[in-house]
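If it is no trouble, can you show me the amino acids of a protein and the tokens describing how it folds?
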Amino acid sequence: MKITAIRPYPVWVGVRNQLIVKVETDEGIFGWGESGLSGREKAVVGAIEHYREFLIGRDPFLVGAIWQEMYRSQYFEGGRVLQAAISAIDIALHDIKGKALGVPVYQLLGGKQRERIPTFATTSAPPSEEMIEQAKDLIEAGWTAVRLSPSDHEGSTVYEPREHIATTAKWCVKAREVLGDNVVLGIDFHHRLSVAEAASFCQKMPSGTLDFLEEPIRDESPAAYETLRKLTDIPFAIGEEFSSKWQFLPYIERDIHQFNRIDICNVGGLTEAMKVAGWSEAHYVDMMPHNPLGPICTAATVHFAAAVPNFAWLETRSSTVEQLGFDNDEIFPVQPRIERAHYPVTDAPGLGVVVNEELIERESFKFWEPPHLKRNDGSVTNW
């Protein structure tokens, strides 16, 4: 079997683009992959086109060797753009191999360790009574882990962290009082805070209010996270921006965090994700994958989640209180479906996703930018 074509499709689905990649072979078997790096899809398409030049004619079964060649065949290896491209191709190669062998992808990763994949869902209302009511709805629908909404810019281009953390902390405390101790509660600050601001937020709540704090600060400095670790006892969930096992290294080895928010479509695909999972297991860090893209990413992550022992929850953006439209039924007629807050593990060969290729060929890419936020004084801050 030989690779005959690699086709990237940047397609507008829901409220954002998805970069879907098809790898074709001379035996008629093809695989689907998905790339992350939302908002910079054109850059990733360019990287995929470079890889395509030397991958045509290769044996798609040599997944590990192809990964190494894509990563190490240029002087400037790695980085988020290249890793997002590698991720999509790697996922598609696993899909091909599973289909060719007649087995689901999880069988290529060591076999199934669980029958269904627990998820966490996110409230969409700002901190308020409505947010708590949404959390109640999620619990009623079967979720035992809920990510609460932070107070944010709410459509404005101005975000001043100190104006938001007190409000968010107050409603987190209220949510815990109302929802009780049995539900897992967390929050994602989207790396918008400094160490001092994050510590102040944590210290405004009684111990035990939150079960995880996600991405409170930017990830470039492990030392900064170590400083924050000394100032709060809330478990950290970080890593969705990491694009290699080497970025995870200091966080795992120095026991900085408790949950890995690994993104299979950014870290380097299933090949790299399995290495991070094994390393994490040795340090008792649980996998809690980032999953804000489309059904191909979800399917790949479900197979990953089925195969690793150290697993907590998979993020879902499709719930009773949040529908972003990324799981479009016309484009993806066969895809993972939530059942009582869990994704069942499919036994279909490969990823188990069907894509309407005629439709994605007609759908157009749209340039999209996240809000470019500034503080009250006009300086740039994080989105």
Observations:
- DSSP finds 13 helices and twelve strands in the chain.
- The first helix runs from residue 41 to 55.
- The mean pLDDT is 96.
- The chain has two domains: 3-104, 107-348.
